[in-house]
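Why should sequence recovery work at all? Because a backbone constrains its sequence more than one might expect. Tight turns favour small or flexible residues, buried strands favour hydrophobic ones, and helices have their own preferences. The token representation captures these environments compactly. In the example below, the structure is given first.
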């Protein structure tokens, strides 16, 4: 796009406004919303109608969630070369009102990975940009009406700039009036389902790409889909962790294996799934991943997943699973012995099942004795290192001591016989209190029968 900056009237006010505006939490979009699932082509297009050429004034408004910036991402347009367009260019709000040469770009930079409300208005001689219901820039503009085109209207698309945002939008509205700051702020938090004077179209994505007031229904293409979750930076919508998996020899003669089961929770749509391995005791910012898929409503069983999927014959790890549809994940990690298998069920858990940074949890029923041994495990659910402080207690509640463990980004650690580090005596009916900082971390214990190598899984909560 042509890089002609127009005069800014409010440069100083901008910077001050930004500090004030980012203090509050604004969460008024309503799932589902229109999601542009990855950095790839996709669009919502609305067939041309004369009503979509707003003429002497307009307001375009929407909730926006961006994962990344790009050179220019089309948010709303009806041919930027000839008429009007709203987009984000390297994070700045940009509008065109009368085609090429009428660019207005705010110095204001919108945030990534949080919802915000975006609006722009035009009326004779003036263009204004709004962020979370407050004006952040005002520019001179032509006095004539916005030129008419017969191009389709685009959301996340423009007939002359087919670059969608990587993120999501909701409550997208077109008005044929220039709304005031007070008007925009007053209605941005609630859906509008019924006709209002000046409101040309309102798309809330609760039922496909339908316009609930003007009949200007949209058509979705490519990566544009209706969803209830915003994409993560790697396009992970439904995220799960299996706190421990293995194809490895353990203490004694134990030989640990993991069988893996996942069910697609959507009855109809196939789930595109990515299985990621998080090997023990290392930074897993970069990790092996294998793509798979399951039909709607079906269950997929993978025996000995560490060897079968990841081709690892001596590895203890955790797993991260990303899916386009909700999954139900169960695993069984067992000791393969001559007498049969002895094992424990380990669920696939959302990150929210872990202990959040700043929070505490407990595990009880632990034992380290001639009869049983305890393993204490940690699985970090993000790319931020976490620290877990563990306080050990005996059966009578005596504080045996505290140890601190660092868990690397997406890291997995397991400590064998941790009570031995704080107590010279055997411990039965022991407990641990865990306190996490840095990143949500799934904390668990596996108590293993020394005679059979039969394990039992305990989740910190
Ligand atoms: Ca919605």
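From this structural description, the recovered sequence reads:
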């Amino acid at each position: 796009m042509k890089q002609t900056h127009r005069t800014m009237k409010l440069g100083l006010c901008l910077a001050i406004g930004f500090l004030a505006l980012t203090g509050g939490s604004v969460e008024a979009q309503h799932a589902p919303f229109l999601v542009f699932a990855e950095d790839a082509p996709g669009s919502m297009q609305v067939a041309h109608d004369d009503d979509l050429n707003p003429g002497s004034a307009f307001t375009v408004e929407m909730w926006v969630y961006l994962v990344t910036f790009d050179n220019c991402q089309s948010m709303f347009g009806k041919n930027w070369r000839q008429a009007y367009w709203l987009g984000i260019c390297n994070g700045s709000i940009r509008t065109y009102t009368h085609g090429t040469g009428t660019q207005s770009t705010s110095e204001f930079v919108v945030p990534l990975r949080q919802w915000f409300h975006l609006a722009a208005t035009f009326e004779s001689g003036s263009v204004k940009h709004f962020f979370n219901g407050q004006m952040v820039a005002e520019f001179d503009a032509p006095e004539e009406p916005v030129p008419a085109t017969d191009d389709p209207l685009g959301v996340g698309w423009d007939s002359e700039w087919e670059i969608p945002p990587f993120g999501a939008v909701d409550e997208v509205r077109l008005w044929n009036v220039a709304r005031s700051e007070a008007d925009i702020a007053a209605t941005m938090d609630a859906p509008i389902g019924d006709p209002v004077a000046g409101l040309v179209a309102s798309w809330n994505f609760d039922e496909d790409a339908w316009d609930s007031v003007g009949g200007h229904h949209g058509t979705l293409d490519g990566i544009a889909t209706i969803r209830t979750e915003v994409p993560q930076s790697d396009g992970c919508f439904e995220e799960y962790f299996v706190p421990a998996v293995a194809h490895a020899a353990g203490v004694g003669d134990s030989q640990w294996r993991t069988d893996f089961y996942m069910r697609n929770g959507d009855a109809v749509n196939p789930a595109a799934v990515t299985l990621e391995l998080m090997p023990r005791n290392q930074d897993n910012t970069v990790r092996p991943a294998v793509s798979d898929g399951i039909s709607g409503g079906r269950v997929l069983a993978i025996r000995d997943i560490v060897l079968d999927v990841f081709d690892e014959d001596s590895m203890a790890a955790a797993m991260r699973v990303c899916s386009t549809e909700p999954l139900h994940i169960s695993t069984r990690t067992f000791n393969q012995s001559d007498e049969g298998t002895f094992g424990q069920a380990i669920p696939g858990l959302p990150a929210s099942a872990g202990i959040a940074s700043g929070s505490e949890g407990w595990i009880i029923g632990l034992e380290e004795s001639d009869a049983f041994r305890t393993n204490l495990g940690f699985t970090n659910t993000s790319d931020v290192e976490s620290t877990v402080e563990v306080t050990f207690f005996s059966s009578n509640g005596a504080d045996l001591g505290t140890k601190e463990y660092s868990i690397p980004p997406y890291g997995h650690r397991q400590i064998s016989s941790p009570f031995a580090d704080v107590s010279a005596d055997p411990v039965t009916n022991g407990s641990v209190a865990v306190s996490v900082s840095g990143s949500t971390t799934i904390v668990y214990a596996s108590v293993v029968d020394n005679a059979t190598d039969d394990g039992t899984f305990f989740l910190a909560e």
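A few observations help interpret the result. The first helix runs from residue 11 to 21.
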